UniProtKB/TrEMBL annotation:
InterPro entries: Put_Metallopep
Protein name according to UniProt: Putative phage metallopeptidase domain-containing protein
Pfam families for this protein: PhageMetallopep (PF18894)
Domain Putative phage metallopeptidase: 5-119
């Protein structure tokens, strides 16, 4: 059985804060977006985002919160620009209401996909 381990990822949080500022994503409260690095997952993803659902917010008295989990075995090997794109992708799942919910990859005319990530990255790099 594989051991799963998780630790704080301050380096990822710093990149995320910089991206939020550069892209003027004012609706994202960076103090309530936590970043962790996990090891031992068999997932193929570079990263994933977790939202604290309303029922947990209500029952436990927590505010809306998000966690960006980077999977060390994949994410840590990436070049800096690719890491930024992965983080942009995860941030695009956060709705403007910052409610703890997550946007799907496809919803009406909204898309979280490679084209949208590239568009945001180019806007940031200007």
């Amino acid at each position: 059985m594989r051991k799963w381990d998780v630790e704080d990822a301050g380096d990822v949080h710093a990149i995320m804060v910089d991206i939020v500022k550069q892209l003027n994503m004012r609706y994202i409260d960076v103090e309530r977006v936590f970043c962790v690095r996990s090891r031992g997952s068999s997932a193929r993803a570079y990263a994933r985002i977790w939202g604290l659902s309303r029922i947990f917010q209500f029952a436990a008295g927590y505010p809306a919160t998000y966690v960006i989990e980077v999977l060390a075995q994949h994410f840590d090997k990436l070049a800096s620009d690719r890491k930024k794109k992965v983080i942009i992708h995860e941030l695009l799942h956060i709705p403007k209401t910052f409610s703890g919910a997550l946007k799907s990859h496809k919803s009406g005319s909204y898309r979280v996909d490679h084209h949208e990530v590239e568009r945001m990255y180019k806007r940031m790099e200007k």
